Amino acid sequence: MNPTTPPALPTSVTTSAPPSPRYSSLSDQPWYLPMGDEVEVFEAAYSARLPVLLKGPTGCGKTRFVEYMAWRLFRQADTPRRSLEVPLVTVACHEDLTATDLVGRYLLSNDATVWRDGPLTGAVRSGAICYLDEVVEARKDTTVVIHALTDHRRVLPIDKTGELLDAHPDFLLVVSYNPGYQSALKDMKPSTRQRFVALDFDYPPPAQEAAIIAHESGAEPAIAQALAAIGLKVRHLHEHGLDDGVGTRALVHAGKLIQGGIDSRRACDVAIARALTEDADVRRAITDVCDVLLP
Questions:
Q1: pLDDT of residue 112
Q2: pLDDT at 109
């Protein structure tokens, strides 16, 4: 059966498009500072076509790492993969995301019913890397969809068209989630986790984090070092009721505001304290840390 021209009107169609993923051509090299052997492990996993699971807190560099690895594998390497226009497809998972959003659906177009591949199916066909960010936030039926893609079969069943799609030889599935932020109801089942090669991410040490902040925000070294020190101190405020630590991304935001002419303490207030919590006491504790460490 040709999935783009169904022979009969399906029982369920929609006139609306699914949520839009991000399609990355990666014409420019994403900047990434390795913290260990994660680059080598990912490349080995890709060579064996083993799906990869990234675990770590919010804003610690998981998405940037995937972008960098896709660039290395599809743009830097001397390989026919360079010809692929879109080597990375990223889907930000959320509680309303269904398997249909990932796989595809029938749509009404000009009084005709046509099949439209979802982002996962498109990546499976073309040989791109599909990155499901915060995968446990999606509905449980999405896990069922990826099972056959993450073992020796490497196939994607498309129930609505009757197609059993073999993955392109270059296709790879990458997923991520924040284990410290998830409840027991939103954790990955062991049967799913064991299908992946798992890489743990954490916030960088202060010296490396300062280098990242300086590169990404353009902040002066002294400011970047102060922001990295703030990040380290704020992450130890659990006793004050802070549920999640400040990510490197938030520190970069503060650096960009400072570079844009905003007072350093005001920049940290809006990019760190107010972005992290609504609790006035916790905000005050973060502000005190900033007052001590900012030059």
A1: 86
A2: 80
**The predicted structure's pLDDT at residue 143:** 82
Name which of 222, 235, 213, 246 is nearest 294 in CA terms: 222
- For residues 248 and 266, the answer to whether their CB atoms sit within 8 Å is no
pTM: 0.88
CA atoms within 13 A on the CB side of 116: 20
What distance in Å separates the CA atoms of residue 201 and residue 199, rounded to the nearest whole number? 7
Length of the chain: 295
Q: What is the mean pLDDT of the chain?
A: 90
Rg (CA), the chain: 22
Residue numbers in the chain where pLDDT is lower than 70: 1-19, 181-186, 239-240
Query: Given this model, what pLDDT does residue 185 score?
Result: 53
As given in the structure block, the two tokens for residue 293 are 């460490």
Are 153 and 197 within 8 A, CB to CB?
A: no
Q: How many CB atoms lie within 10 A of CB 79?
A: 12
